[in-house]
Amino acid sequence: MPSITREEVAHLARLARIELTDDELDHLAPQLDQIITLVGQVSQVAADDIPPTSHALPLTNVMRADENVPCLTPEQALSGAPAAEEQRFRVPRILEED
């Protein structure tokens, strides 16, 4: 398996618009090469009879069916508000108008 070169790391950094120093390129090239080697090893271990998975445990749909239920009236919704105006919560102004 060919190793990843410093120039390839620099090219990837340019594509990702990441600025790397010379020291960072020298440091990352062997690390990325090791990652690619390890991914290759994992790919070799994967057997054809094992289906690919995204989770170790099976997931089930946890969504419930939509049901129409009565909602709060404006009066009920605003009953606990410290201040209300025109069926809306009244809050202090935090931005000045220009």
Automatic annotation (TrEMBL):
> What keyword terms does UniProt attach to this protein?
ATP-binding, Ligase, Nucleotide-binding, Protein biosynthesis, Transferase
Q: List the Gene3D superfamilies hit by this protein, alphabetically.
A: Glu-tRNAGln amidotransferase C subunit, N-terminal domain (1.10.20.60)
Q: What is the superkingdom listed in this entry's lineage?
A: Bacteria
Basic and acidic residues bias locations: 85-98
Mention one GO biological process in which this protein takes part, according to its record.
Answer: regulation of translational fidelity
Reactions catalysed, semicolon-separated, are:
L-glutamyl-tRNA(Gln) + L-glutamine + ATP + H2O = L-glutaminyl-tRNA(Gln) + L-glutamate + ADP + phosphate + H(+); L-aspartyl-tRNA(Asn) + L-glutamine + ATP + H2O = L-asparaginyl-tRNA(Asn) + L-glutamate + ADP + phosphate + 2 H(+)
Q: Where is this region: Disordered?
A: 75-98
InterPro entries attached to this UniProt entry? Asp/Glu-ADT_sf_sub_c, GatC
| UniProt EC number | 6.3.5.-
GO terms of molecular function:
asparaginyl-tRNA synthase (glutamine-hydrolyzing) activity; ATP binding; glutaminyl-tRNA synthase (glutamine-hydrolyzing) activity; transferase activity
| PANTHER family per UniProt | GLUTAMYL-TRNA(GLN) AMIDOTRANSFERASE SUBUNIT C, MITOCHONDRIAL
Provide the family line: Belongs to the GatC family.
What does this protein's UniProt record list under function?
Answer: Allows the formation of correctly charged Asn-tRNA(Asn) or Gln-tRNA(Gln) through the transamidation of misacylated Asp-tRNA(Asn) or Glu-tRNA(Gln) in organisms which lack either or both of asparaginyl-tRNA or glutaminyl-tRNA synthetases. The reaction takes place in the presence of glutamine and ATP through an activated phospho-Asp-tRNA(Asn) or phospho-Glu-tRNA(Gln).
Oligomer and partners: Heterotrimer of A, B and C subunits.
Write down what this protein is called.
Answer: Aspartyl/glutamyl-tRNA(Asn/Gln) amidotransferase subunit C
Question: Which source organism?
Answer: Kribbella pittospori
Q: What is the lineage of its organism?
A: Bacteria, Bacillati, Actinomycetota, Actinomycetes, Propionibacteriales
In the UniProt record, what gene is named as encoding this protein? gatC
